[in-house]
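task queued by scheduler; priority normal; single chain, no ligands, no partner chains; default sampling; output format set to structure tokens
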Amino acid sequence: MNIEVLSTEFPSLYAKRDTSVFSITMAIPGGAMVEEEDQYGYAHLLEHMLFRGTRSYPTSKDLAMEIEGVGGRYNGFTTYDAIYLTATVPASYWQNAIKAMFSLAYEPLLEETSLSIEKQVVISEIQMAQDQPEERAYSHLQKLMWNGHRLGEDVIGRRKDIENATRGKLWSFWEKLINQKPCVAMAGPLDKRVLEDFLKNVEIPATLIDPLREMEKPNFNPGTSRIKEDTQQTYYRLALQACEAAKDDIFVYQLISNILGGSSFSQLFLRIREEEGLSYSVYSSVEATSVAGALVFSCDLKPKGLDRAKIIIQEELERLNQGKLTHEELDRFKRFTVGAYTMSLESTSSISLLLADRFLTRNCIWDPQSEIQYINNINVDLISESLSRSVEAGSAEVILGP
């Protein structure tokens, strides 16, 4: 894949593809990790408010007509590291997508009436998560392993902080983010010079500064938290310290996650669900940011199955830790990992998102072939070494249920 860096005042990356659609992702650095103590949830609330109206698109309907009105789609989401704005349109309407994304970022109205409504939407979102025991279990895990750091609270934020948000407070927060250089990543069939010429004329702040790279790194806190609740199932969450997104070891942890709980032929899925019927839902994931990462295992179990499930998880971790994974097994999971990765390269929206994400979290130009080669070169010893470091740091576990 040929990825080009465009000549603009902010990082602009472009992957030219033989396709009939055009995608853009704008990543605004900062995200939840730049929030102050009484601002938890402001980045997420701001992301919502950007879509409520801008100078060029005064209403959400005006924005929808610019993108959805030509058959496209758009979205936004917030992480600890950034606010992401995305759009995909038929290639002939590429200007619509770029104009809309820049208007969202730099022309928000943040009107009082819209803010009052959107605060209730976000509070409803918080309540919805709190109503789900699996979400509560993960929230407890976050607080346990990242205690005292912003990572210890969900991106969505705290209800009291959202309730206390005013237009003035949110405007000040937007101003803190918006003077940092965004990363604009695109994929489509256009000539790069056409994009460069257009981007040189978009409206941006007079002075853009480099993003803040030095965020406070949290300490990983091992321990166990038992929460008694009257639920039908027991919700078990286990976390090991991984690494931050910028380190190449992140691909090792992603492979470990796939081996243990990333598919319907992973070790934990086969043993806990298929062979012993202890759980309907069992999976693993890697939660990584620019400052820290964790390898997380999740099981929603019959209450009497908890002890047995914990034994199976420890047995599989020990097996990898001791380097007992066979070469045949390793090759199988590398094929799965690389195959899933390759499938994502067929979508312009995935490409633009990966371009922006890698630049922001890894501070580099995304090179998919290099990443695939690294995954293919992972061996049993490297898996064992990475997992040994994680096991030595201890584990954080949450048990929520009767």
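post-processing summary
- The longest strand covers residues 279-288.
- Residues 3-199 form a domain with the Cytochrome Bc1 Complex; Chain A, domain 1 fold (CATH 3.30.830.10).
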